[in-house]
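**Fold tokens**
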Amino acid sequence: MLVIVAFALIVLVVLMVMAWYYTKKVKEMEAAQKEAMALLEKKLEEQREKRKKSIRIIAQGVVEDQLTLTEGAIRLSALLGSMEAGESHKEEFKAVFLLAEATSHIPVLDEWKALSTKKKMAYDSERVNIESDHKEFVLDAAQRLLDDPRFQVESVMFYQAG
């Protein structure tokens, strides 16, 4: 009988040690998971801020006529579409998406470079006509993006060394 009680106590102690060990492991894993989630959330926030900053820079360029409406619309539509509220942005800033879609058939980058001068002029003329139809609305959308508090970013202070 004493042997059975001793054996039961040994089993109980082993089970208690195992329970403590696995509880400790679970807590460590939860802490690591929480840390990983915090890091991921920080990276996502950094990406959101970067996109918001890019949206502001491009919208400012559109308003100040520093780039074509088409280039601005293509870039803004891609950035707005990648934001969490992409669908609501598509409705709210519809002019940007409409101009991007209306000019999506015009070649860009290497395809543009490969075109003959005559083809480039024809596409450029077409782009200008399409832009004139959308200009007022795209400029309004760009200004609304600049004024929208959702797209505000914290300004970065630069200090001179020395």
Summary: Confidence is low (pLDDT under 50) at residues 156-160.
